Amino acid sequence: MPPILLGFLDKHHSVAGGNFNRWLVPPSALAIHLCIGMAYGFSVFWLPLSKAIGIKEPIACEPDIGFFQELFVTYCDWKISTLGWMYTLFFVFLGSSAALWGGWLEKVGPRKAAVVSALCWCGGMLFSALGIYLHQFWMMLLGSGVIGGIGLGLGYISPVSTLIKWFPDRRGMATGMAIMGFGGGAMIGSPLATGLMEHFATATDVGVTQTFVVMAMIYFIFMLAGALSYRIPASNWKPKNWTPIIDGSTNKMITLRHIHVKNVFRIKQFWLLWGVLCMNVSAGIGVIGMSSPMLQEVFGGQLIGIDKTYNELDKPQLAAIAAVAAGFTALLSLFNIGGRFLWASLSDKLGRKMTFITFFVLGGLLFISIPNSAAANDKLLFVGALCVILSMYGGGFSTIPAYLADLFGTQMVGAIHGRLLTAWATAGILGPVIVNYMREYQLGLGIPREQVYNQTMMILAGMLVIGLICNLSIKPIADKWFMTDELAEKNLLEAHTEPEHFARIGKPTHPAMVWLAWASVTVPLGWGMYNTLLKAIKFFS
Hints:
By secondary structure, the chain is mainly α. The chain has 2 domains: 27-239 and 511-534, MFS general substrate transporter like domains (Growth Hormone, Chain: A), CATH 1.20.1250.20; 273-474, MFS general substrate transporter like domains (Growth Hormone, Chain: A), CATH 1.20.1250. 69% of the residues lie in helices and 0% in strands. It contains 19 helices and no strands. It has helices at 3-8, 25-36, 46-49, 67-70, 80-108, 110-134, 137-157, 160-166, 171-200, 208-228, 268-299, 315-350, 352-375, 379-408, 413-420, 422-444, 454-472, 485-495, 511-540. The longest helix has 36 residues, at 315-350. The protein starts with a helix and ends with a helix.
């Protein structure tokens, strides 16, 4: 990059003037999260990529071709199970990169970190496109899985501490707005990718290569616009007419002091929160991965008004219930994204600890109720339980940054949040493994398909009990872990290198700029939600 641009990315160049409108920051965060949130929607590429050579039908590899040979073969198609490793790598590298570079993000600021995120996420897609063209799966794993996964991690945490500092009076709502975008990214990206693949597909090409290139270009424009729009508040800034808690007597779970990121691994509250997030995500992500087949296998022909089990259905009937299940999956997506904003905003009133108590108690009861709903053939209660569970799954992601800020202070919350996201990487493996392997084990015992998830629901409820115990054990952090006022002030001065010309008040933000910024993210998000709602309606019809 040119030196002038690199200088513009420096942290002190993003310090806002006194008249800056803080409501311009959430759209910048949403622009980043709506793009990287497409990680949830990558499964839309699996079926076309599984016949990238055969075009109409997959050309299977020889039976003795293992996973490592499949990384390099060019004459046969990849299996969908092999392609799924990209999804796994996304969240492994999201968590690990957020943990590794969270401290660097706090040092250089959200603008530079978000630009690096855009380069990694979009550059990874372009490298993957080359891998698809050359039919080299290792290039896809490296491009989207590793490089793109690093971009995911940096992009995911880049707005967290910034929004918390801009909205100290509404921490939950602020993080909920941004992380809602990550849940909604697939709502925009999946139909966009489907339309592009249909446009580029020919008799000799499934159109995925070109789709990756176009989407990478679109995403780069949006992510760069969001990154360059980031602003951080001046060190002495606070919202108008807002008075912070002075002595902590109002809520002892909220501190005005700060903990250094280097100490978090030695503090038990960090590991308790790690367990809280891991258990909540493991339970939710396990359901997401199997929601469509679970609905089909549990209710079978009842989904289309036929009194037959799943095994008794013919091919057209199976296709019909698959379409209904697709609507169910879309419905879960709406609750996932809605829960991210609703529960996080509600946590500003309830408190973070009580919000997670609600997640674990209500979620555990709902998991226990699911086998009974299935046995009674009550689709409404079955679907309703899973929708609420998925709303709390999304709500956990958006509430946890505010929980961290309450306990550890705001000064290094981005770096601490990055370390905590290793819980997500763990849950991304733990949840699907439990659900998938329990299903296979139950089927191996000869248990009917409509009953194979009963034990799994009990296990997931048990995981929420573990999360509840972790959450109830969280107490205010001991004074010995907090930085002294002198050290906190020194870190603050180092973090905010504010040149003299940035101390001026500046011109007030024009209201039209705020409306334009919000329109740029809400219009595509609204389009994605509209498409998802159309699919969800099919479930009820």
